[in-house]
Write a structure and sequence with these properties.
The chain is of the alpha+beta class. It has helices spanning 6-18, 23-32, 37-55, 64-74, 100-111; strands at residues 120-127, 139-144, 149-154, 164-171, 178-183, 189-192, 202-209, 222-227. It folds into 2 domains: 1-56, no CATH class; 67-227, no CATH class. The chain has 5 helices and 8 strands, in the order αααααββββββββ. The protein has an 8-stranded antiparallel beta sheet with strand order 5-4-7-8-1-2-3-6, covered by helices on one side. A hairpin with a 6-residue loop joins strand 4 and strand 5. Helix 1 packs parallel to helix 3 (37-55) and helix 3 packs antiparallel against helix 5 (100-111).
Amino acid sequence: MDYSRPLLADRLAAEYVLGTLRGPARRRFEALLPAHPALAAAVAGWQARLLPLSAAVTPVPPSPGVWSRLERRLFAGVGAAVPVRWWQRLGLWQGVSAFATVAALALGLVLSRPQPVQPPIIVVIAPNPEAAGVLQAGFAAGLTRDGRALVLQPIHPVAPGSGRAFELWAVPPQGAPRSLGLVSGEQATTVRRGLLLRDTAAFAVSLEPSGGSPTGAPTGPILSVGKLQI
């Protein structure tokens, strides 16, 4: 099949981004993306056209029972006497429903780039509703299963502002977040660290001074948070 044909590439890319391309056909398409620039370009074009629609989706509050089960699953073992950390607050997760579409689009963003040998783990680091008045910054991250490399791609290009920078954090189930360094809000950033997955429950991006946090912990607003699913 000639995937360089514009009409064919556009039709397959549209079905892929919309989520109607499923099963073996979807997996075959994902495997073809790195080797076919025409397919990758078509996917990027459909993402650019459809992604703004996800921002208009009104979040639907889940029932209290759903949140109770999520809290038990995500934060099991955290005692009631332990102070609630910023990444565990309910408000950080209430905007996730609006980013269900973004998760599918993020897969294309990462897979359109050359891939490591190990298959990637896809993490959507979604904008924090509590920081909506500061900046809207969302990211898609592709993390290799060996935990050694992470490619962070902004969903919408966004600049941190004069004298400011975005800093990426690995968030453990308990204890303080650890910095993974400064990242770009306008282009992909590759982060290479040993054992990125060890003791990591989520990733977060904060707004910091241009040189990064001066304290070793987030000092500015937490702009986006993404729960790690393995």
